[in-house]
Amino acid sequence: MRIFLTGGTGFIGSNFIEHALLEGHEIYALARKGSSPKIQLSREPFWIFGDLSKDVSEYLSKSDSLVHLAAHGVYNGGANSNWEESIKWNIVSTLNLFESAYKSGIKNYLVTGSCFEYGKSAEKYNKIPADASLEPLSAYASTKAAASILLKAWAVEKNVKLNLMRLFHVYGEGEANYRLWASLRKAALENKDFEMTKGEQIRDFINVKEVSKILLNGICDNSLEIGNPTTTNVGTGKATSVLSFCKKWWGTFKSKSNLKSGAIPYRDNEIMRYVPDINSKKFF
After folding, report:
1. What is the distance between the alpha carbons of residues 87 and 54, in angstroms, rounded to a whole number?
2. Residues facing residue 113 across a β-bridge
3. pTM
4. What distance separates the 2 farthest-apart alpha carbons in the chain?
5. Where does the chain have alpha helices with state H?
6. Is 130 within 8 Å of 232 (Cβ atoms)?
7. 8 Å CB contact between 22 and 44
8. CA-CA distance, 153 to 142, in Å (whole number)?
9. Long-range contacts of 220-227 (CB under 8 A, 24+ apart)
10. How does 219-241 read in b/e, with b if 16+ C-beta sit within 10 Å?
11. CA-CA-CA-CA dihedral for 267, 270, 275, 281, to nearest 10
12. What does the alpha-carbon distance between residue 163 and residue 109 come to, in Å, rounded to a whole number?
């Protein structure tokens, strides 16, 4: 398969490229100028440097599928407040890209969403079903939620395949240093104390390599129906406290320093439980 990929040098995008290339697929990867993959790739895809406003119809016309991973505002747990930029990139530019892909003949689409789209709704469930209501609490999460609604309606109108895959808490090689697992590892390996919240939040942590496999399977899924978009949750289905996760990895890294739980407060509007039902699907 020839895949046109956005977010190619991002944390998940880099790992997706490595897995897809090893599985024999061809990748046209869109990436911001000056950026580079977050992991060492065994070989390179065909790189296209620019942002979502770039005319990429030449490469879309050579592709069988579009995998859209790029998003604005992912940093800080998606708690950014730049509404104008989030609307521009997560909604307007995303729709323009999908329109261009459709005009280029692509009929097969995958877009990643976020557990943060569920927002306050997440607290109503032991395990969040794919058809849970969307009650986001930030510019990033709100615009991703709006885009998911828009793109599903778009896929019905255009009579194409669309797999919307909402990611839960992804960790692993290549993630940004400010994120939990990466900052925990850095502190452990440098034998520095790690300050954290009390860690009572319940999460579903999934390794990025597993996510890459799930996403590739998602774009290659022959059971998807034309004109009937599907929403699925991507996680392990296992509930783990942040403190348990940190203690496990702190031991794995064999740090001689200390985990200092309760040293920092929770974020404003912290959702205390994000655990998905990974077996449920929502059809349009």
Report:
1. 17
2. 166
3. 0.95
4. 58
5. 11-22, 57-60, 83-87, 93-103, 139-158, 180-189, 208-219, 242-252
6. yes
7. no
8. 17
9. 220/1, 221/163, 224/108, 224/161, 224/162, 224/163, 225/161, 225/283, 226/107, 226/159, 226/160, 226/161, 227/155, 227/156, 227/158, 227/159, 227/160
10. bbeeebeeeebbbbbbbbeebbb
11. -110
12. 6
Please tell me whether residue 264 adopts helix, strand or coil conformation: coil
Distance CA 139, CA 160 (A): 28
CA-CA-CA-CA dihedral for 117, 31, 67, 239, to nearest 10: -40
Using CA atoms, how far apart are residues 71 and 89, in angstroms rounded to an integer?
7
Other CB atoms within 10 Å distance of the CB of residue 252: 10
Tokens representing 107 are 């009929």
Please, is 97 exposed, middle or buried when counting C-beta atoms within 10 Å of its C-beta (0-12, 13-18, 19+)?
Answer: buried
Residue pair 232/166 in contact (Cβ under 8 Å)? The answer is: yes
The structure tokens listed for 220 are: 């290659």
Question: Residue 130: what residue type?
Answer: A
Residue type, 75: Y
CB 203 within 8 A of CB 180: no
Task: Going residue by residue through the chain, which has 284 residues, state the pLDDT in tens, using 9 for 90 and above.
Answer: 999 999 999 999 999 999 999 999 999 999 999 999 999 999 999 999 999 999 999 999 999 999 999 999 876 555 567 899 999 999 999 999 999 999 999 999 999 999 999 999 999 999 999 999 999 999 999 999 999 999 999 999 999 999 999 999 999 999 999 999 999 999 999 999 999 999 999 999 999 999 999 999 999 999 999 999 999 999 999 999 999 999 999 999 999 999 999 999 999 889 999 999 999 899 98
Helix (H/G/I), strand (E/B), else coil: 202: strand
Amino acid at 38: K
